[in-house]
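Lay summary. Proteins are chains of building blocks that fold into shapes, and those shapes determine what they do. In this project we predict the shape from the chain. Here is one chain we studied, written as its sequence of building blocks.
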Amino acid sequence: MAPSDAARAQRDELFPGRVSTLAFTDPELVEHFEDLAFDEVLRDSRLAPRTRLMVQLAALVACQGAAEYRAMLGAALAVGVTPVEVKEIVYQCVPYVGMAKVLDALHVTNEVLVEHGVELPLPGQSTTTPHDRATKGLAVQREIVGADVVESLYTNAPADQVHVQRLLSANCFGDHYTRTGLDLPTRELLTFAMLVALGGCDPQVRGHVAANGNVGNGREVLVDVVTQLVPYIGYPRALNGLRAVDDVAPAG
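And here is the predicted shape, written in a compact code that computers can read:
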């Protein structure tokens, strides 16, 4: 069967004039996928198109889906995600996904931005120095995660692992969360999306469900995000993400 009218309309809006070669080689698979990705998961979604594309980009980086990331990056730029926001999405992935998995996406990002006439490098977004990154990072970590939680992480860390907590505060939070270009609620939503997409991060996903709540992203938003990731990350990881949401922010 052909994709629904709604799926075709959404696909054509995001990818005007583009015809996937898979439509000729694997038409049945493409029809099912497009109905799911461009119709079914969108029916009850309240996410703005920009937000939807941003969390999907973060998840695709985590999945190392370079080809799909390239296609979705073009769609994200078309709906108004700015070059600075795109770069910040990729940078936000580094402390959680690791540079080894992010590097290909970074190169794709640069190629696509240049194709769109964007001059690189973009204006810097860092707000810290080598002297204050640890202090500022710890402050924003306490704001997002909660002061009691951060204190517990430091107190309960074995003596030979306290340095990792210091790295987390200075690097993950100090070098990344303090950057301009994206606000804290958006950064937390991206972090949640990429951790769900990675799989095997259940404790961290639960921690960032709580952190999202601290910055205003409640259960409804997180369920919506996971729903938008289903076509790209599959059901096992999506269901694990929903279980983390249920554990930390159960339905009322």
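What the prediction tells us: Residues 145 and 207 are 8 Å apart (CA to CA).
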